[in-house]
Design brief:
Distance between the termini of chain A: 20 Å
Largest interface: A-B, 63 and 63 residues
Shape of chain A: globular
Number of helices of chain A: 14
Structural class of chain A: alpha/beta
Oligomer: homodimer
Chain lengths: 403, 403
């Protein structure tokens, strides 16, 4: 069991900067040994933040290979652009490091296998840093599901509904990878935020697995209209054709007959939501109005047509997940209402013990594969496509995910 | 323009009985000439209700052919089992009657064409009696869409979420057609309640059309568990295998690039909802929390994470549909919070003027076809299937639907 981890952070855009400042720097058991970004200004600014926090100045790199070559580094955190997550994670493992990488989708199925191979060859711990698996409501529902309150789970839904029009359309100024992705690809490019908590509820890769999917994309109108209004008709991107449909819906069939519906919805005006919904033979959870419907307890109609909106709070005391109860009693810290903190603690504790945290490479590969497979299905007119078993049959044996 | 319509009601189960009593009998411009049901007790009970309302006793029939042979009948209302809607509607048209038939899905695409042919050969008015097209919120949203408040519409969702476990499982005692359907079929068997209002928003068959769909069904667990608990393990149906998956999700692609997501969810515990959702480039409507999100006005995050739940009421005064404003000032009447009444008035007024009401045979055929096509897609492992153009190209010319 390691006492302290010596960390290199690779990728210091918006996400890396936020995670470093709010969630990594406050940890007592890490040293920040190296920072790496292709843009030197990002390295320098983040180095300042590290020093201002009272820590020694880290070494700075523009090429991640150089950072990985440092003997002093034992743990790599990848917060770079989507396209480089798997490449850098694999390189880190081959360099003998433990690695955790930020969320995103895969560009090809072969990329997912590459991740599996790197882990199996090197034995190095490798985890995807999916914070939504530590969401308070997500864990409350997981807790209730595992205690049988919803009965047998039959259908789950999730989504990433987030109005990113401003971020995406300023992609060239702010050097953000979403711009090029939206310009040239059409798929559920960000499935893991919504799929992660559902996968833990359905024991995906842990006694169950995803078999096939179909995906359908709406037309792309949101970004064009936004840029036209924001920048005017003379701005070049006002006339670009974005390939990415505004709303992409994906349906997934599981080995035990459950279905999953995922929605990507990032270029239209909307309130933020992960559209989380769980339906079993005894009850239902619905994020849109934060309500729980229990068989034999709740009525289908109410005078005001509000099915007990917000009633999830009635279950809070009895079913808040133990992890959250402890977190609340110690004081919630870190970004995204604390879910970054819980996710980072799970990662650091696992690496110190020499193992992968949940979400490991098998889970990560199958979740990330949804992007590449939804792209295929859309390109084939919503044809069904098979989802590989990245565990090679081990999903029949793998123990349940514990947050 | 006819002053009075002479009506035969065919099918007097739960729906026919309710519609007759609450919505047809109170109309001033109809005579109830004939009642027909294969079960004589149903005829007799409903005849009593007619007489008690102060009207002359209707003639009673067990075979609909005999009812259609009556010269005194000019208008037929079909409230029989799903399987007979199209058969009886066609027979009514060939007998020279105007006809309105209750909602449900089609069993084959040929059935849909049969409906089209009967109408085109006879020229008789024929309408589907889809009450949800007259829903207050549905018409408010349609009104706002047509005034451009949501911008260009990109994606719509709908559903029929209704816990029917009790009704379905008692299907043999209460002679309800759902039992046999759930036992032997797996599809979105009831698509028009949710699709109807969406079709009017997207101008389906009126400048736009549905091109293709994919459909996926979850496992079937709800009915088995319900019957087991309700009746015990010794009850025969507790050991039946129901073919109908508990949750069926269908994705539809439209000619102008919009997507539609439909959910059938009738055998799990849940609050009633038609899961209505409309997304455009300027705003969004969400039924689950009855909220409207407007670009530039609403914020994506709120302190309490409630995106202005219920705020649809803020739009009520300005955008309630004129039809509903008038209805409210005259006093809302009839079943299902008044939507049956508005639907029936539209039907009767159209027949008196010698024409089909919205929803006409072309709309009805394409909406009902979703059942047969979702059954095909599910059977083919969620393969995409083409949706026929029942208008023969006239969808490019047909005028917008007006409620």
């Amino acid at each position: 069991m390691k006492e302290t981890l010596n960390i290199a952070v690779v990728g210091l855009g918006q996400r890396g900067t936020l995670l470093l400042k709010d969630t990594i720097l406050p940890q007592p058991d890490v040293n920040i040994v190296a920072l790496c970004d292709v843009y030197s200004d990002r390295c320098e600014e983040n180095a300042k933040v590290v020093v201002e926090s009272g820590r020694p100045a880290p070494q700075l790199f523009s090429d991640y290979h150089d950072a990985l070559a440092l003997d002093a580094v034992d743990t790599v955190i990848v917060t770079a652009a989507w396209e480089s997550h798997i490449e850098i994670a694999c390189a880190a493992m081959y360099a003998g490091k433990a690695v955790g990488f930020e969320v995103g989708g895969a560009y090809s199925i072969e990329d997912c296998w590459r991740l599996i191979r790197a882990h199996e060859k090197t034995g190095r711990p490798c985890s995807m840093l999916e914070n939504t698996c530590y969401g308070r409501d997500e864990l409350l529902v997981l807790n209730m599901v595992r205690q049988g309150l919803f009965g047998e789970i039959v259908h789950c839904a999730g989504g990433y509904r987030h109005d990113l029009r401003d971020e995406i359309s300023r992609g060239r100024e702010n050097r953000h990878y979403r711009f090029r992705n939206y310009l040239s690809r059409c798929c559920d490019n960000y499935p893991t935020h919504d799929l992660g908590p559902i996968a833990s509820i359905l024991d995906i890769n842990h006694g169950n697995r995803m078999l096939s999917l179909v995906s359908m994309a709406s037309k792309a109108r949101g970004l064009h209209e936004f840029i036209l209004q924001d920048k005017g008709a003379d701005y070049d991107a006002a006339n670009f054709h974005f390939a990415q449909g505004d709303v992409v819906t994906t349906l997934i069939k599981c080995a035990h007959g459950e279905t999953i519906s995922l929605t990507l919805d990032t270029s239209l005006p909307c309130p933020y939501s992960r559209c989380f919904q769980v339906q079993g033979t005894k009850g239902m959870f619905e994020e849109e109005n934060r309500s729980i419907f229990m068989d034999g307890k709740d009525r289908e109609f109410h005078e005001d047509w509000k099915p007990r909106w917000g009633c999830v709070e009635e279950y809070r005391e009895a079913y808040d997940h133990p992890l959250w109860k402890e977190f609340l009693s110690n004081g919630v810290r870190g970004g995204h209402n604390g879910i970054d903190w819980l996710m980072m603690r799970a990662f650091l504790n696992a690496v110190k013990a020499g193992r992968s945290a949940p979400v490991d490479v098998y889970d990560a590969a199958s979740w990330m594969a949804i992007s590449a497979l939804s792209e295929q299905s859309i390109a084939l007119g919503s044809a069904p496509v098979a989802i590989p078993d990245f565990t090679g049959g081990q999903w029949l044996l793998r123990q349940r995910w514990q947050p």
